[in-house]
Design brief:
By secondary structure, the chain is of the alpha/beta class. The protein is built from 21 helices and eight strands. The protein has an eight-stranded mixed sheet, sandwiched between helices. It starts with a helix and ends in a 15-residue tail after the last helix.
Length: 448
């Protein structure tokens, strides 16, 4: 995410860090590099101009230039102004005091509107809400079916009336259905188009007038950069949107849309889509995004992802097994599965603060290695998983053949598992000795 922009900004900051003291001309020269990096990231020109002006004015002040660490002060200013550029603070979804809360999803075709209607509904379902998805796209082939598939995967009901009824009537009927059956949130999936046209916008305006939505969320593809900002500006003029959902942010190496949308439209980014799975949706935090852009990591989002993934009861059971030395290969397999649910290894590494992105940018993270580990364990019998010490040469050959690996990889896994088990036992023993002082076992690889 934003790797290209992060690299260019860090190269610009090297010019600051290479000098013990900074002059006004040093700052202006470095800011020209920052300006170029932002323009190459497809950030709106006016946004870049205003941003560079503000940062330069702050950076050439006496407080910065006379400080002991002026380079770090400049980076700090850039960080603060990036946060301000993206909205300053998190903008939460407005919840109506009188249910249901009505969220109208709008956007161009192909931006991910239908999927993200489901993603956001799923997020609020986990928080105890009772969402309803309403299918108002009567034009795109299979649009209703797509929404039903998404709803089915999330166990969220979908209200639809086919393709012969007008979207305005479907929206109104959907809200009445929600009131009747106790749904406190309604997500209206409207029709998208390849291009903004008068008919589409008129229809959206009619739906807005008929149902008076609490929120109008515009879904835009982050990877389209400046085009995404232009789309946001057009929709905002006609519909007065309340927020933006940026999709495909995991594939956006530039960051132009994320850095421009708020400044151009005055409307906040509320959610970001970071993958294809239905749980890859995050609230947008300007401070965390600024930290990611500058290579400072995002440990808070990493912790939240882990908390959503790891089950407390399972963690307590795992802690007991480790204390009693009954941790098995089945348990080992389960931990790999839970870690995978947080996200890809690249995503996890990108959230770790202090990680030298320059040093690892060319490193190849072999996601398939986890798959091979899973295949090896799944090729074992339950007895072998519970008692790996019984796995002899002939068993290893059978396991290797069944998992599509070789005996060497099986041996490597068994050795790693044994080392892991010994290490965890040591942690458990240390924690036990600290028990009287309030110590508690912390599983090293993310189970607690």
């Amino acid at each position: 995410m934003f790797q290209s922009l992060s690299d260019k900004l860090n190269n610009a900051f090297k010019k600051f860090r290479s000098k013990g003291k900074l002059t006004e001309s040093d700052v202006k020269e470095g800011m020209r590099e920052v300006k170029l990096a932002l323009l190459e990231a497809d950030v709106n020109f006016k946004v870049v101009r205003d941003f560079v002006k503000i940062v330069t004015e702050r950076a050439v002040g006496e407080t910065v230039l006379e400080s002991l660490m002026p380079a770090q002060q400049v980076v700090k200013i850039v960080h603060e102004e990036l946060i301000n550029l993206m909205g300053g603070t998190q903008s939460k979804l407005q919840i109506s005091s009188k249910p249901p809360t009505i969220i109208m999803m709008v956007g161009l075709q192909g931006a991910g509107k239908t999927t993200h209607a489901g993603k956001i509904a799923g997020m609020y379902k986990k928080q105890g809400k009772r969402p309803l998805l309403v299918a108002c796209d009567v034009y795109r082939p299979a649009a209703i079916k797509q929404l039903e598939v998404v709803g089915g995967q999330l166990d969220i009901p979908v209200f639809q009336m086919g393709t012969l009824v007008s979207p305005v009537e479907i929206a109104k009927a959907g809200i009445e259905h929600a009131k009747k059956y106790g749904h406190d949130m309604v997500f209206i999936d409207t029709a998208g188009r390849l291009h903004i046209d008068e008919k589409l916008m008129g229809e959206l305006q009619n739906i807005k007038e008929a149902v008076n939505p609490t929120e109008i969320l515009l879904t835009v593809d982050a990877m389209t950069g400046q085009d995404a900002v232009n789309v946001a500006e057009s929709f905002d003029k006609l519909l007065d949107i309340t927020g933006v959902v940026l999709t495909k942010l995991d594939g956006d190496t530039r960051g132009g849309a994320a850095l421009s949308v708020r400044h151009v439209t005055g409307k906040p980014i509320k959610f970001v889509g970071t993958g294809e799975k239905l749980d890859t949706i995050e609230p947008f935090y300007p401070d965390r995004m600024a930290s990611r852009i500058l290579g400072m990591g995002d440990v808070l989002s990493l912790i939240e992802k882990a908390q959503q993934t790891f089950d407390d009861k399972k963690a307590e059971e795992m802690e007991r097994k480790i204390r009693e030395s009954t941790f098995t290969l089945t348990d080992y397999l389960e931990q790999f599965s839970q870690i995978k649910n947080i996200g890809s290894l690249e995503q996890i590494m990108g959230m770790i603060p202090g990680l030298n992105t320059e040093a690892i940018k060319d490193a190849k993270i072999d996601e398939r290695a986890i798959g091979r580990t899973e295949a090896i364990i799944l090729s074992m019998t339950m007895e072998e998983r519970e008692h790996p010490e019984i796995i002899n040469s002939s068993r290893k050959k059978r396991i290797a053949a069944g998992s599509g690996t070789n005996v060497e990889e099986v041996n490597k896994l068994l050795k790693q598992f044994e080392q892991m088990r010994k290490m965890l036992k040591q942690f458990a023993d240390m924690s036990g000795k600290m028990g009287k002082k309030g110590g508690k076992l912390r599983i090293p690889f993310g189970m607690r």
